[in-house]
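Below is just one:
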Amino acid sequence: EVTDDTLIHFGMDDVKQKILTIPLWLSIYLAIANENKQAPVFVNKLELIKKYWEDRIQALTELGFSQTEISSAVEHLVTTASHIMQNGIPENLLDSQFYKVYEAMVSTGILTKQDGKITFFHQALYDYQLGKKLYEYALVSTEQFLYAFGDKSQQLLTRREHIKYALSLILQTEQKRFADVIWALLTSVNIRFHLKYLALKMLKEVTEIKKPTEKLINNILQDATLEKNFIDNCCFGSPILVEFLSNQNYISKWLASGDEKNIDLAIRLLRSVIEARSDLLIQNMNPYFNQSDEWNSRYLNAIWQPASKDNPEIFEIRKKISKEMTN
């Protein structure tokens, strides 16, 4: 049997290890690993839950059920659960034509049955399916996607995971559609703040900024409220987003503005990614080297890490600034 001792810390970065410290995700991870006799490769929670569904559906097909039967049964289950606003569904509400499929889903670890109710074995399995439905609406149109949210009274905190899965699936499919959907969520008067906040934070998931997302971010940065929320909640610590701000000359403009708040913001952003992208700090701060004691102090303050962590370029800059400041 594959156990957490043999798999958890093998070749995994901190993000993946953090995911697997949560019992739910660890159990899903180990279930896939034990079924396939090897550790699953994944980047995030979405990939883990997708792999689990794929693995379980394969088990159902091996029991003789067709893809159509399985899809119809899952669709009925998810639709019924969403109508009654809960995961646990009384058996008498389920269509009897899917009884054998649901029995098989219980035996394959998709569903559980207790006290006359059918429930998804993991809440995440239900969340993923609801997210997938939202994703399918988005493929039709942005308007359909927004309509599926319902009015503000239906936009509960419990829907956050569904929407997160939907936006992740859209991002994997097409960046233009992703950008259109995010902008629609941010600008709609019918969407509650907590979902706008979630939509904004999804920009941290973008691994390559293409033209549609470039346009989206530039639009966000033209709106004072969105700009502050975007920078505070997405940009700090994100090498990709700080690089974008640098390439689009936002950081250089802030540094040259003469406004102490803007200068401080630019330096804090550069500081936040110095370990991964010290070149961005050097590129943006070198023009101010020896401009004044104040700028040298700012530059040195931006190199916040211990000298032992400096790469050769940063170490040389540190030495030059320290020398100038002691003269």
About this structure: The mean pLDDT is 89. The first helix runs from residue 4 to 7. DSSP finds 19 helices and three strands in the chain. The longest strand covers residues 111-114.
